[in-house]
Amino acid sequence: MNAPTLPVISMTALESESGLAELRRAASDVGFFYLVDHGISHESQQDYLRLSREFFQLSVQQKQSVDMIHSPHFRGYNAMGSEMTAGRLDAREQFDWMNEEQAIPDSALSQPWQKLIGPNLWPTSMPGLKPSLTKLQDQLSDITVNLLQRLCASLGVEAHALDHTIGKQPYTHAKLIRYPGQHRPQQGVGAHKDPGYLTLVMQDEQSGLKVERNGQWIAVEPIPGAFVVNIGELLELASNGFLKATNHKVESPKQGVERYSIAFFMAAQLSATVPVLSLPDELSARASGPSADPNNPLLTDVGNNVLKGRLRSHTHVTRRYYCQQTARTLLANSFAQLPINDICSECTI
Ligand SMILES: O=C(O)CCC(=O)C(=O)O
Ligand SMILES: [Fe+2]
Q1: Angle at CA 113, nearest 5°, toward 110 and 119?
Q2: Is 261 in the pocket of ligand 1 (CB under 6 A)?
Q3: Is the CB of 248 under 6 A from ligand 1?
Q4: pLDDT for residue 240
Q5: In which region does residue 306 sit, left (phi positive, over 0), alpha (psi from -120 to 50) or beta (all else)?
Q6: Are 320 and 329 in contact (CB under 8 A)?
Q7: pLDDT tens by residue, 302-337
Q8: Ligand having the closest approach to the CA of 192
Q9: Which domains are seen in the chain, by residue range?
Q10: Could you say which of 163, 185, 238, 246 has the lowest number of CB atoms within 10 Å?
Q11: Comparing C-alpha atoms, which of 150, 142, 148 is closest to residue 164?
């Protein structure tokens, strides 16, 4: 195997000062790293990826029974060609699940992001999916919370400095993803940053994930058993830009090959506002403030930051549930500019 292109961080080394220093370097310099010794074995990861293959092999009809179009809460299945990133269609199919919750009736919504709260969609033809994926969600949730605390410690602030934004459990969102092979080079998912605190990615043995570094795209080759971790926009905000949410993308595999991955996004509670941490002088001198992109304003209020991403990614769901008057009024009260203006011709009026 070639030398890894990104830092490799061992979870068990994060009690020592030198381990924390390596973590800080990886998270502030690249914003991407491999995580090993995290407690989920390679075999167990293979089992989850097998389960994912089984899901995508269900019939079109079975997958459509849990299509995201049935969920105002952005949960469920997206067929190829129903997701946009950076304004272009992604060549991937996916199944999204989040915290299992009860929906709030429209009449009781006071904030637009509250519409994200709701139940997941589970296929009746695969009863084992819900318990397995719920278990995975719990395991990854624990790993990411632990990692967030170690990151805080690495920044010289209280390890628990962000715990109040998470409450009893963080907001979590996960995806089973299948990238089918393509004749021509194509975006599996276009260049983007992730919105939450931290993302963990479990990849199979196919390459395709790339991260932007000094204007170049670096391949994040799979290392058996390792997760890929990246810093999300909320952590960039909390560290005033010291930690970096880095652009990344997936290029489709060649014809005849397919790539499977499972992505797990951990964020603060949707109701939380993320504080800017008071870093020690030596680090704050190197914090350049969060990056400013007029097409992608970073919002410290978590719910709206998450909602903004979902509205743009899944425009068929947005048109169905967020373009009617009640939702538009709610959105207009929370955003300086309607985040659906570029999605629906009626909303541009
Ligand atoms: O599939 C992957 O390896 C990464 C996916 C990703 O970046 C995302 O869904 O945000
Ligand atoms: Fe991502």
Answers
A1: 105
A2: yes
A3: yes
A4: 93
A5: alpha
A6: no
A7: 898 889 889 988 999 999 999 888 888 888 888 877
A8: 2
A9: 8-334 (2.60.120.330)
A10: 185
A11: 148
Q: Tens of pLDDT along 147-197?
A: 999 999 999 999 999 999 999 889 999 999 999 999 998 999 999 999 899
Query: What's this model's pTM, rounded to 2 decimal places?
Result: 0.94
219 vs 211: CA distance, rounded Å = 7
Please measure the distance between the N-terminal and C-terminal CA atoms of the chain and give it in whole angstroms. Answer: 56
Length of the chain: 349
Angle between helices 129-154 and 42-56 (to 10 degrees): 130
Q: Is 167 left (phi over 0), alpha (psi -120 to 50) or beta?
A: left
Pairing type for strands 216-219 and 209-213 reads antiparallel
Radius of gyration (C-alpha) of the chain in whole angstroms: 19
Distance 108 CA to ligand 2 centre (A): 32
CB 306 within 8 A of CB 197: no
Tokens found for residue 65: 């029974």
Pocket test for ligand 1, best of 193, 209, 211 (most atoms within 8 A of CB): 209
Distance (Å, whole) CA 83 – CA 233: 20
Helix ranges restricted to H, 116-230: 129-154, 163-166
Work out the pLDDT band at 143, boundaries 50, 70, 90.
Answer: very high
**For 22-57, what is each residue's pLDDT tens digit?**
999 999 999 999 999 999 999 999 999 999 999 999
Interface predicted TM-score of the whole assembly (ipTM), two decimals = 0.99
The larger pLDDT score, comparing residue 86 to residue 94, is at 94
